Amino acid sequence: MNILVVDDARDMQLILRRILTLMGHQVMLADHGQAAWELIQQKHFHVVISDWLMPVMDGPTLCRTIRAADLPHYVYIILLTGMSGKQNLIHGMDAGADDFATKPIVGEELEVRLRAAQRVLDLEHTLEEKNRHLENVNHSLSAAQALIQNDLKRAAVLQTGVLPSQKIFKHLCVDWFFQPAQYIGGDTFNYFPINDELLFFYSIDVSGHGISSALLSMCLQTLLSSTGELYCVDELNRKQAPMFPSRLAERLNHHLNHMLDTGDHYLTLIMGVVDTVDECLYFVQAGHPQPFLFSPVTRKLERLQCTGFPIGLLPDVEYETIKVPFPPGSRFILYSDGLLELQTESGKPVSEDDLQEHLQALMHLPARQVMVQLGKQLKLGNTGEDKPDDISLLAIDFCG
Amino acid sequence: MQFSTHTQGEFTVVAIGEARMDASVAPELKHSIAQLLADGVTRIVLDLSQVTFMDSSSLGALVSLLKMVGNRGDLIVAGAKGIVADLFKLTRMDRVFRMTESVDAATCAVAA
Hints:
The structure holds 2 protein chains of 2 kinds. Chain A is 36% helix and 23% strand. The longest helix of chain A is centred in the N-terminal third of the chain and has 53 residues, at 107-159. Chain A folds into 2 domains: 2-129, Rossmann fold; 163-398, Phosphatase 2c, domain 1 (4-Layer Sandwich). Chain A has 9 helices and 15 strands. By secondary structure, chain A is α/β, with parallel strands linked by helices. By secondary structure, chain B is an alpha/beta fold. Chain B has one domain: Transcription Regulator spoIIAA (2-Layer Sandwich), CATH 3.30.750.24. Chain B is globular, with a radius of gyration of 13 Å. In chain B, helix 1 (26-38) runs parallel beside helix 2. The chains are: A alpha/beta, B alpha/beta. Chain A binds chain B through residues 205, 207-209, 264-266, 268, 287, 289-290, 307-310, 313-314, 317, 337, 340-341, 349, 351, and chain B through 23, 26, 30, 53, 55-57, 59-61, 63-64, 83, 89-92, 96.
């Protein structure tokens, strides 16, 4: 080991150097604490053996100086003392000494004390190695996590890329609000005209959050698109419209239970068709939050009390199409349960009744304004406030 | 996830001690009850009386457990209330699970 001997007595320095050199150590000498401290800053000493009383800087002060410094390695300190007594020992340990040896120096005793020093230094060394390794691991993990988070943020932005952009049709106006969750979720929706008379629409919420939920929702967008496997445009005409939503739900349920391994994921949806000739709306309810219907006659917003099995949870269940009148001036509002996980100002979760109340007060406004105002009231779209779940809201107006 | 189990008659009662059953709880819930089933327990009452919120992933976990139980035993949902009970109704899972007001109602009704 590299050992620094600190003593103001020349004979003591020489005795120690001789004993230590014979034991196979490399030894350097210093006359007092200050000289020792200068050497310690330049050279790596494993052990410092220091006298107690010295001019310029004494042993305990040297101890404290070493301990206060941020040295890259541990320095084991043995204080030499001619003094005995508990108080001295406490004083020395408090200053940061690891061990004590009493003068006159006995070679065997010093050898045993240096073996103890070696054990402690070995342990320190192992710990340092482990720490360095953990720091490296930690660093790589943080880097990987940052990469994934960044990727998820990008994915959340891209999720909105599949959402429909057209909002005005011959007789219908549609508007929507969508805010992806912090770590992407499984909400999606779409609508498109079949012809001038029919508009097909759906709002979907895949269970769970994260990449697999989001990918399943993308997969459903493809399945339900006009060119998708499950969807047959020929079949959807005004005569078929009353049966279409429930049949498509059954086909989709079959597909998810038998053709696609969705793991533990399933989905809730409301999917339907607006018929602007018969002025009615057909939809199927599969465990989605109950939609709202605004009637131009009563000027009231009504929650449609309907229930249904989610899709992909149980095989071979039946779905029914629900028919509601939809004269000009009507408005149909769909949303996902992310809205119901928000908190009101009092800290309670937003209930369906709260939502109905908020929306009722906004019914005189065009759909775009409803989205904006509701967003303000529920503090949606605030940057820096990441939501736990996707939030989607869709309004379909019969503008006449 | 906080939960406790005890035996009541022929039933193993699993009482969920969490107010929120969400995506952070669902995998452990599924694993723990699947373990009970693997250990040979067939009649389970799930006490949800402490639960005030349940999300879709927890509901999904319960359904997959129900499928695991199959017709070899029971998985009875007891004490669901408020928005938890509403979720079962909305998704018609109240028609799929046997549901009771309380744990006692579950153990008595089946024994009778």
